[in-house]
């Protein structure tokens, strides 16, 4: 079986972001920036500390087109198994999300809990006048693996949150707060296209962050008038080049889900290329926000591999460097220990020529043709952003992985998460 | 290309260690425990701090049979390239080893330095009465990648160390000290067989420790009367089941080398099975010593995967768990966060059935058929040894990877190694 973290990206076109000239990006509103969407976030008591833990995103229509990508981890949480099933119809009315528990490794009872949650959302929405079936409701959960959810609190919360949502049009920010776990800030973005349509989104995720075809919990919305096929294409193309190229700790979550819902409420028809560019821009921004707020981060690092024979080769090698504990600890220490980059490249399952590798840190060449250059150890890495570029000298393909350093704070946070 | 860290072990027989009943293991003498070997270790000035940094192991014969396994990292240090070449003859008179510099990524000049070192050892030995060619001298280096060695000090040290070796028969311990880098203790072992023959060994290695077909620097010696083919078989069989199953940080060194030299000086003929068992026992002990002294270690962890379809599957999954930063930080915190073990298993590139996985920590079941059992979070992991056993429920094959936790000390040590 193929490494599930490696995806074939050769057929994914590079988005033409020039199509967005004049458009405006904001970090407010998020999923409720596009017309036709409502959202809410409340504290339902799922988290012991009383913080917000339940979010709802509701599509008023007229369209209900939707697509999703999910974790490739073979151990999938109950809400992932449920949402994979309902998304087959390519149509969603709502997404219910909870933090405070992943509902993963919870057996058939955990799946029944997810089903019951979708049923409760559907019946509550129906009683408020929007006829909804449970198969129109996606479910996402995040938090500790292996614990059942407190279903009394979840179900009471569902009634409350539908009521809450009815009160206003701009609950996007509340929803973004309610899906946070170890995140320190909510992550939202909205793209307002000059043509009069919008794409919005929110995300959570700070650890167990090595998305595989999908990532973390992300809900994207648009009011563009587009087909379900177009929604699906735009989502897959965007995630392959954004979330799939973020790798904080090499650990692939059991709950990763990215959803894109379109309401068509702007009544503006948008081409595939325009939608691709806009969804990519929104995903790229959210991926950057996730990297900025990653667990224990002190350095935001971009590992770029150029001169590869194929884009997949470049990705595999960039990921090998991004996951190397010795590279990550050296960069935490602002130490230009480039030999560790070479060792990580040489250990990757891609054939390379050691004598052709050229590496630079923050634009300064530190190794040429596999051999160190004078002054290599004097490069200043004290800032909070580091760019590592490795050229293989084998071809013209390239790829970038975004990662972070391995710090004391990462160890501290993750040695005391469940207890 | 296949993951270079994954080796086909299906054909490696399990050694019959019952053949060693009555034999005695010690942690003294090391490479000079077998008859026919001399060794020495000195401070040649390669390390700035004045600690011992040059070691020599000399085979007096009558036999000169030798074998070696090397790192599978594609970026190979100059001494690895040299030793790979000379070992083709399956005959070695001596091994010269230095700490204080890896001589990796040093270009053609670095290779010339290795060649010159072998030449100097050969000519000095010849002038002392043992006619030796440079192709009979293996070279090993360890330390920072990317710096040339101070060849004036290396060559002066070679003259001194040959002289030093002439003075006594038991320089094994001095040699073991001279190859240390971040190691805190020297690693030596000797097996004294009841049949009157011996196997000895020494090792260094504390970080960048994820051996691939070979590991770190290890020199093994025996005075058994065995063929070069037998030496080669015994070494490959032993390393596949010992050093290859040690994985401290997933980082594969550019310099890993394991050598086995036989002098035949005991004049005792030994069967392949006996040699296999003895070399395995010595390698197994040294691998345990490496684990005990790994960088930043506070917990010695064994990850065992049982119930796999094949031994390779078991190894790949055990390695996936052993390399997972979230598993390693949780265990550092004595936190039985078993969901992270499940997530790491599900992320491995081997097909599994999540609903059949059973996991125990220190003998206490914490997850059965993919679902947590009551009391799972109460397991006591406060001791300094942790056993994780995951049964896949798919077959009868199993494998164990030895690893360590991810601690503050690991981050501290590795964020300030080169600077």
UniProtKB/TrEMBL annotation, chains A, B:
<keyword id="KW-0055">Arginine biosynthesis</keyword>
<keyword id="KW-0808">Transferase</keyword>
<keyword id="KW-0012">Acyltransferase</keyword>
<comment type="similarity">
    <text>Belongs to the ArgJ family.</text>
</comment>
<dbReference type="InterPro" id="IPR042195">
    <property type="entry name" value="ArgJ_beta_C"/>
</dbReference>
<comment type="pathway">
    <text>Amino-acid biosynthesis; L-arginine biosynthesis; L-ornithine and N-acetyl-L-glutamate from L-glutamate and N(2)-acetyl-L-ornithine (cyclic): step 1/1.</text>
</comment>
<feature type="site" description="Involved in the stabilization of negative charge on the oxyanion by the formation of the oxyanion hole">
    <location>
        <position position="142"/>
    </location>
</feature>
<feature type="binding site">
    <location>
        <position position="419"/>
    </location>
    <ligand>
        <name>substrate</name>
    </ligand>
</feature>
<keyword id="KW-0028">Amino-acid biosynthesis</keyword>
<dbReference type="Pfam" id="PF01960">
    <property type="entry name" value="ArgJ"/>
</dbReference>
<feature type="site" description="Involved in the stabilization of negative charge on the oxyanion by the formation of the oxyanion hole">
    <location>
        <position position="143"/>
    </location>
</feature>
<comment type="function">
    <text>Catalyzes two activities which are involved in the cyclic version of arginine biosynthesis: the synthesis of N-acetylglutamate from glutamate and acetyl-CoA as the acetyl donor, and of ornithine by transacetylation between N(2)-acetylornithine and glutamate.</text>
</comment>
<protein>
    <recommendedName>
        <fullName>Arginine biosynthesis bifunctional protein ArgJ</fullName>
        <ecNumber>2.3.1.35</ecNumber>
        <ecNumber>2.3.1.1</ecNumber>
    </recommendedName>
</protein>
<feature type="active site" description="Nucleophile">
    <location>
        <position position="215"/>
    </location>
</feature>
<feature type="binding site">
    <location>
        <position position="295"/>
    </location>
    <ligand>
        <name>substrate</name>
    </ligand>
</feature>
<keyword id="KW-0068">Autocatalytic cleavage</keyword>
<keyword id="KW-0963">Cytoplasm</keyword>
<dbReference type="InterPro" id="IPR016117">
    <property type="entry name" value="ArgJ-like_dom_sf"/>
</dbReference>
<feature type="binding site">
    <location>
        <position position="181"/>
    </location>
    <ligand>
        <name>substrate</name>
    </ligand>
</feature>
<feature type="binding site">
    <location>
        <position position="215"/>
    </location>
    <ligand>
        <name>substrate</name>
    </ligand>
</feature>
<dbReference type="InterPro" id="IPR002813">
    <property type="entry name" value="Arg_biosynth_ArgJ"/>
</dbReference>
<keyword id="KW-0511">Multifunctional enzyme</keyword>
<feature type="binding site">
    <location>
        <position position="204"/>
    </location>
    <ligand>
        <name>substrate</name>
    </ligand>
</feature>
<comment type="subunit">
    <text>Heterotetramer of two alpha and two beta chains.</text>
</comment>
<comment type="pathway">
    <text>Amino-acid biosynthesis; L-arginine biosynthesis; N(2)-acetyl-L-ornithine from L-glutamate: step 1/4.</text>
</comment>
<feature type="binding site">
    <location>
        <position position="414"/>
    </location>
    <ligand>
        <name>substrate</name>
    </ligand>
</feature>
<feature type="site" description="Cleavage; by autolysis">
    <location>
        <begin position="214"/>
        <end position="215"/>
    </location>
</feature>
């Amino acid at each position: 079986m193929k490494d599930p973290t490696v995806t074939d990206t050769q057929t994914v076109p590079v988005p033409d972001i020039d199509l967005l000239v004049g458009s405006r990006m904001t970090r407010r509103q998020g999923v409720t920036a596009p017309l036709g969407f409502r959202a809410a976030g409340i504290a339902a008591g799922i988290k012991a500390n009383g913080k917000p833990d339940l979010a709802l995103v509701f599509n008023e229509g007229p369209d209900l087109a939707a697509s999703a990508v999910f974790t490739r981890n073979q151990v999938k949480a109950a809400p992932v198994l449920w949402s994979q099933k309902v998304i087959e119809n390519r149509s969603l009315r709502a997404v219910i999300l909870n933090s405070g528990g992943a509902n993963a490794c919870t057996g058939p009872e955990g799946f029944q809990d997810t089903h019951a949650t979708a049923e409760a959302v559907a019946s509550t929405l129906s009683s408020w006048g929007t006829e909804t079936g449970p198969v129109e409701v996606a479910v996402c959960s995040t938090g500790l693996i292996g614990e059942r959810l407190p279903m009394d609190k979840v179900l009471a919360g569902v009634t409350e949150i539908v009521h809450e949502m009815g009160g206003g049009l701009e609950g996007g920010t509340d929803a973004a707060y309610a899906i946070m776990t170890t995140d320190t800030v909510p992550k939202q973005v909205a793209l307002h296209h000059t043509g009069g349509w919008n794409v919005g989104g929110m995300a959570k995720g700070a650890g167990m962050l090595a998305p595989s075809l999908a990532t973390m919990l992300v809900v994207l919305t648009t009011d563009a008038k587009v087909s379900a096929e177009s929604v699906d294409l735009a989502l897959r193309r965007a995630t392959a080049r954004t979330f799939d190229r973020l790798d904080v700790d090499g650990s692939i979550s059991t709950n990763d889900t990215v959803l894109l819902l379109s309401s068509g409420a702007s009544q503006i028809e948008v081409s595939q290329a325009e939608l691709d560019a806009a969804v990519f821009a929104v995903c790229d921004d959210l991926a950057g926000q996730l990297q900025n707020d990653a667990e224990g981060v002190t350095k935001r690092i971009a590992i770029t591999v150029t001169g590869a024979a194929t884009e997949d080769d470049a990705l595999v090698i960039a990921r090998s460097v991004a996951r190397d504990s010795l590279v990550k600890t050296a960069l935490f220490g602002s130490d230009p220990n480039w030999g560790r980059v070479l060792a990580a490249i040489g250990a990757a399952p891609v054939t390379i020529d050691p004598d052709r590798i050229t590496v630079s840190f923050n634009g300064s060449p530190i190794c040429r043709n596999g051999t160190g250059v004078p002054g290599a150890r004097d490069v200043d890495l004290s800032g909070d952003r580091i760019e590592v570029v490795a050229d293989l000298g084998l071809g013209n393909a390239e790829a970038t992985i975004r990662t972070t350093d391995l710090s004391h704070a990462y160890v501290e946070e993750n040695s005391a998460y469940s207890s």
